[in-house]
Amino acid sequence: MPLSKITVELTNAPKNKPDNDKLGFGKYFTDHMFILDYDAGKGWHDPRIVPYQPIALDPAAKVFHYGQTVFEGMKAYKTPENSILLFRPYKNLQRLNRSSARLSIPHIDEGLVIEALKQLILVDKDWIPDEQGTSLYIRPFVISTQPTLGVQPSEQYKFMIILSPVGSYYAEGINPVNIFVESEYVRAVTGGIGNAKTGGNYAAGLKAQQEATEKGYSQVLWLDGVHRKYIEEVGSMNVFFKVGDKVITPALNGSILDGVTRDSVIRLLKHWKIEVEERTISIDELVDAYRGGQLKEAFGTGTAAVISPIGELNWQGDKLTLNGGKTGELSARVYEFMTGLQRGLIEDPFGWIEKL
Amino acid sequence: MPLSKITVELTNAPKNKPDNDKLGFGKYFTDHMFILDYDAGKGWHDPRIVPYQPIALDPAAKVFHYGQTVFEGMKAYKTPENSILLFRPYKNLQRLNRSSARLSIPHIDEGLVIEALKQLILVDKDWIPDEQGTSLYIRPFVISTQPTLGVQPSEQYKFMIILSPVGSYYAEGINPVNIFVESEYVRAVTGGIGNAKTGGNYAAGLKAQQEATEKGYSQVLWLDGVHRKYIEEVGSMNVFFKVGDKVITPALNGSILDGVTRDSVIRLLKHWKIEVEERTISIDELVDAYRGGQLKEAFGTGTAAVISPIGELNWQGDKLTLNGGKTGELSARVYEFMTGLQRGLIEDPFGWIEKL
To answer: Are A204 and B202 in contact (CB < 8 Å)?
Structure first.
């Protein structure tokens, strides 16, 4: 079968769709999914849309043992006029291939994936919720399936796309979260896999996240693994700080994720003539700026929450309250613009929106 | 069902057993496997031995996305008298639980696992090869199966044991390997998950391993992620160096694996009255010892190879040939003792061997 020919098998048993107020994040999945297989010597083959169903793998499949996986996260939105919009999908698929290269996973043609993604969304278009704040979350991922226990790159993979209608990340509009600055655990280090979107980075963060939750914090702020003082990410989001009239964010140093929302926010701020610096930022610099009254706002950026304002940073017991614990003006402005753009309510000056 | 009651379903279709000379490592699996399920609120339940078969998982199962997995590696040996021997099984299962704690995976009763392991091995005892150098490799592992995309510890898991008859790691006795000292990629860092036996660490090593192979080297020697100069591990083994009359090995610093073979070799060397130091070792110290004629031997230790002598270290283009590229006297002596002990050919002075 030519790689461009996607076969479609429709379900005979469509599921009931959940109510919008019960959606949550990544709990419900649509009626279909996309699968593409890889075998060494044969390449990627058999692109197909099939009913959403369990996948059967040999217990020796490498994904269960050696974590050779990558994934992406994207969203599709339904406009008031019933158009379906994607946000910078090529940017995510280019990153998927960069992650794959780091994990010794074969490259996938981005055009084929976009085509598959569009077809899949159209098949399940009735699953896209249309209430303010809801969207269809898109999860493309690659797993290594060769059933052998040698520690080598797999010779077999599955690339899949699953879709999940998701609710508003904030039940009642955008709300700040409290963040624990992590000084014991490390997420990633230069030379490691921190800039790849792969399971191991998320596994490495679970324990710190769990301990932060027990202390009453939503997420941790990660510091670098070498000096234990430079800001990296917040939870699984990139992070921005407004200091005086400037915005600063950690530079892409090899151990943090090259976020699509991060890149978009930087370009948006520059578009608004707000000065943005991508550079090394130490926790001491932030504390000093806070003491001097210059640390005005902070927010995380990621596909799931889009913008997540930070109300408090706990650094070794010191509580730094930002903007009185309330959503800052800039955070709100960026959130409104980004979500408005993604939902087609604001004209797109950047060419980021792709209409199906 | 009480947790101690293991049900057994035997296969109706036993597979053909591979020839001893075709075994390789982790390519063939026996007729049965052990499964234990976990659900939050219910705990571990339904221990069962069933025919070896694919497992069906929802595509959203957390293991496919966030790498929340742990595993172990052990071996069973058949003696010339047809006894079945295990080597320090509790030590591995204690480490499994330490790895699980780091990955926010619930604790499993070690006694139950030993019982399950023994029953499973007895069911498949005809699969244990008995030729010199062969054994039955045992792979216990835990995967997170909850089908939700939130980045949190899973509320559902499967613990499984699969068995694989494996060949001699060395086709013609013990042979030295050439090692590339890695200066670009990093396996793990203090504060991370380097001392847990989890997929992410192995995923992080694939690229370096692949590039070393392309340069003609078997494995990489990992340096620490902070200073990029202290020795950590070799491939996925611990590493020992004979310098003068002493043996040195990296101390357990939180970023290397607490190897069972490592611990056994340290105790064996002390039993032989050979001085062993567990401490920080820089690559510069090794190069200096080499230049001064004091670096006599080096070898890796791990369950798969037991002892893997190092014939050459390539450090930034400098080739350090150890013991003329031949297996050293001490490496051979340790290998002979350890494999003799594990196969029941040598009396066990340590109480490490457990007979089924």
So the answer is: no
